[in-house]
Model the fold of this input.
Amino acid sequence: MKKTFISIYVLGALALFSSCKKWVDVEPNDRVLEDKVFTNPDNIRNTLNGIYSNVAAKSLYGEYMTMTAIDALGQLYSGSILNTGGGPAGVSNGTPALSYVNYDYANPTLKEQMLNAWTQAYRTVLNINMFLVNLEKYPNVLDAAEEKLYRGELYGLRAMIQFDMLRVFGPIYLTDSTALSVPYYTTATPNVKPIMPANEVMDSVLTDIDRAIAHLGADPVLTTGKQDRILNDGLDYTRMRNLRMNWYAAKALKARALLYRNAKTAAYEVATELIGKMDGEFPWMNADTASNPIDRTFSREVIFSLNVPNLYDWSRKLYGGDVKSDVMWAPNTTRLNNTYEGKVQTDYRFSTLRNFSWWDVPPGATFGYKTLRKFNNVDGVNVQFRFRMPMLRKSEIYYIAAECAPDDATGFQLLNTVRRARGLTEDPLTTNRQTEIQKEYAKEMYGEGQLFFFYKRTNTARILKANGTGSTGTANLQTMTRTQYVVPLPESESYYQ
Done:
């Protein structure tokens, strides 16, 4: 791994300064690059933008960790080729989701994609650590408040990325928290760090999150709001805060991490604190605000999104009407209908009556089944919420609070707040709270990678099969154990440990 990681270090340096290519061409010495970049405030800001671009790469949160690989591990896409009506076509070959829904971790394509995700994640962490080192090396270039804000963002990003590597490659934390998992990098070093026990990784994750929250204590989002506009006046770092790791996002990440650790009392405290503060800044969508202009990601509710310039192209190649059936990422029709419990008129996410719903037969299709259109192109080039991939949603904070609530009455009150915001009736207290929360994750998080992590966190023993009907009969359930839940480390990483 050391040789591999040194290569990543070099690539990381180039990626870090990718926004400054004119200097790379003229003066390729790394020290000269640092002098050019970190002695100029605008260049520092551009370099930080480059880090966010790395986070949004296709092999990380632009696609693999959201729209495709991780969602497929949660059995959300059919591994079988679908016929024109959306049922299994009965042919022997499958779709790109097949190796994921079968948990065939020896499959070469799956192994390559997981290696790419791992490499991009730790390359980006290296970039973050290099950036932090250079802020120390070149002090007082930025205003103190601006520098503190950037540090907070980077601590939060560093925690988020490495936490997700733990969630993918680490053990089932609920039952095996001391097992070896992944490394955790806090320094800009080309040396390999040892694989750490999962509980120690979680210690590091939460330490970084707390650092982020402390540094983001004066985040402009808390006083002037997220400010969905750019003015090019040198103060834009205080704006579009929902496209940055902001204070609300760091708090939301902490609630997510605490729940993963099964620290439910602490997670509930963080989530309810956040709910009390965020409703004004991140209001619920409604039929009017989501329909004109069409806003299928419900962007006003999203605490933190990434800007993914290729989002619509990537989405079209996964779900578009001209995509061939053997490369399509789609659920079978019966499974999808049952996921949304047949609410084709009421659930805003699935309704045939709403232009902002997430599912429809794509234009120009020769088939009759629905595909995901959550990330379809948005009408209007000046619409501020274009190209956004949600990272942390308001609804998830309500789900966390609902799961961790001390009693069913409180839990269902929180869960039903989200259901009402989605056009649904309230779940009665007579239903099972955890089961209903699981159902809502499945409806809400399509294309965002969170359902598999829910299953793994709760060590759910059987989950709905991608190629089943969506009912809970034994034939439609996939048995889940460590073999399915724990993605093997890339071979290069394992070899050098």
Observations:
- The first strand starts at residue 302 and ends at 307.
